Every structure is written in structure tokens, then in C-alpha cells.
């Protein structure tokens, strides 16, 4: 699989989970077109209203982009189970209490509900202990990570010492990195530049030029 021509609408980042077998049976007819070209085609074929449909930037299945409300509605008992977890600093000092780890994201600064002497960010989330670590902006910087749940598309196994551009979120332009396959289900990523705001649980996708090498789920990030 390759990136789409229209980089603003490229969905390769979310399609890394397709296996090589699935890709043999998949077609991406819009990959060589830009969004304006697709709109013009719709208009040319008489779909005027569709061609003028506004862009959507929200999570398609979450009304109002309120994912916290979505979680509360889908798992009614969740809020009571996780409420009252601890905020700590990187040295383990208690800074206050939060409403439960599922309702926070790495890099979050607003809506923490705790008054501190300086701006603080969510730098780490431990779901096992319902603990959230707060730190300064520089505490979000990482240069290594472990990625699991691997799907490879371009290769059956990674070549030794392969370099790739690694994206850690959809709008991330990507960072050059060394990939080391530790097992069939784990890749160690060593970034050649610092990366900020790596969030465990999010996708990591590897590119060689416009080719998607594959991807996986971020397990843990480090700074060394």
C-alpha cells in the first residue's frame, strides 16, 4: 500500500492493519485523486449536493467529538470505577486526584482540574494503577518506543537495520527512525530526532518513501 496523492486526505495511517492477503483483494480507487478532483467528479455526474458537503473532522461515531461522554454512555459503570485516581509528578509525589485515566490523553494540559504553580501536561498514564503523571512540556519528549501488534505489508520480516519514517499520529509528518524487529510481534523504534507526545495505545506506522512498511500499537515510549 502507498500514501494517497492528496496528502491532506491520506488514510494510509489508519489502514496499516490490513494484511498482505487483504491488500491483494483491495482497491483504493480515489488514491490517485485530490479531494477537489473528487468533488468535481461528483458534480459532473449530477451529485451537486454531495459535491458541496462540508468536511468532517470529528470522530465519525462520536456525536460532538465528545469521546468522554461516549465512554460514559457506553460503559455506565466506568466513571464510578475509575474516579479518584492520583496525579503524581515524575518523582512520584502526589499532586491531586483526577476523574479516571480513560478520560485523559498524553500531552493534555487543559481540563486537568488541579491547580498547580506552573503549566503541567499529562506525560504518562498507568491504567493498571489508575495513575497519571504530570510534567513540564519537556517531559513529553521521547526518542525510543516499543511497538506491538505488528502487521507488515511491504515485507514478510523487516530487513536488518532498516530506516523508515515513523508516524505516531494521523497529522504527524513523521520522523526518521531505525527499526529493529525483536520478534514477530514487536518492533523497537529508535528515532533520529526527539519526538513529543507519543501516546501508548495509538498507532505507529512506518513508511519507506510512499510505501507503507506496516504498523502496530505503541506499547511504551522512552527517553535515553
Explain this structure:
By secondary structure, the protein is α+β, with helices and mostly antiparallel strands. It has three domains: 7-51, no CATH class; 63-135, Adenine nucleotide alpha hydrolases-like domains (SH3 type barrels, Roll); 140-222, Translation factors (Elongation Factor Tu (Ef-tu), domain 3, Beta Barrel), CATH 2.40.30.10. Helix content is 14%, strand content 33%. The chain contains five helices and ten strands, in the order H-H-H-H-H-E-E-E-E-E-E-E-E-E-E. The protein has helices spanning 20-23, 35-44, 48-51, 67-74, 78-82; strands at 85-88, 94-98, 121-126, 131-135, 141-152, 163-167, 175-183, 186-196, 203-208, 211-222. The strands form two sheets. Strands 5-8-7-6-9-10 form a six-stranded antiparallel β-barrel. Strands 2-1-4-3 form a four-stranded mixed sheet, with no helix packed on it. The mean pLDDT is 92.
Order of helices and strands: HHHHHEEEEEEEEEE
The tally of strands reads 10
Which second-level CATH architecture of the largest domain applies?
Beta Barrel
Structural class: alpha+beta
Which range does the strand content fall in?
Answer: 25-35%
The CATH class assignment of the largest domain is Mainly Beta
In order across it, which strands form the biggest sheet?
5-8-7-6-9-10
Query: What would you give as the CATH superfamily of the largest domain?
Result: Translation factors
Low-confidence stretches: none
Tell me the helix content. Answer: 10-25%
The rounded Rg comes to: 20 Å
CATH topology of the largest domain: Elongation Factor Tu (Ef-tu), domain 3
Amino acid at each position: 500500500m502507498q500514501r494517497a496523492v492528496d496528502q491532506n486526505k491520506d488514510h494510509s495511517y489508519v489502514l496499516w492493519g490490513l494484511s498482505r492477503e487483504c491488500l491483494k483483494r483491495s482497491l483504493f480507487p480515489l488514491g490517485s485523486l485530490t479531494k477537489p478532483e473528487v468533488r468535481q467528479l461528483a458534480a459532473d455526474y449530477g451529485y451537486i449536493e454531495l459535491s458541496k458537503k462540508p468536511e468532517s473532522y470529528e470522530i465519525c461515531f462520536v456525536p460532538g467529538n465528545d469521546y468522554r461522554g461516549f465512554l460514559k454512555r457506553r460503559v455506565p459503570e466506568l466513571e464510578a470505577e475509575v474516579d479518584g485516581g492520583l496525579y503524581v509528578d515524575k518523582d512520584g509525589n502526589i499532586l491531586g486526584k483526577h476523574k479516571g485515566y480513560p478520560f485523559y490523553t498524553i500531552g493534555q494540559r487543559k481540563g486537568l482540574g488541579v491547580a498547580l504553580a506552573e503549566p503541567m501536561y499529562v506525560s504518562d498514564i498507568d491504567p493498571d494503577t489508575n495513575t497519571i503523571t504530570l510534567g513540564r512540556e519537556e517531559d513529553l519528549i521521547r526518542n525510543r518506543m516499543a511497538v506491538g501488534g505488528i502487521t507488515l505489508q511491504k515485507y514478510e520480516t523487516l530487513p536488518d537495520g532498516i530506516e523508515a519514517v515513523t508516524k505516531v499520529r494521523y497529522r504527524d509528518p513523521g520522523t526518521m527512525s531505525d527499526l529493529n524487529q525483536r520478534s514477530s510481534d514487536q518492533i523497537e523504534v529508535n528515532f533520529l530526532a526527539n519526538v513529543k507526545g507519543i501516546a501508548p495505545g495509538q498507532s505507529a506506522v512506518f513508511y519507506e518513501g510512499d510505501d507503507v512498511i506496516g504498523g502496530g500499537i505503541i506499547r511504551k515510549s522512552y527517553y535515553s
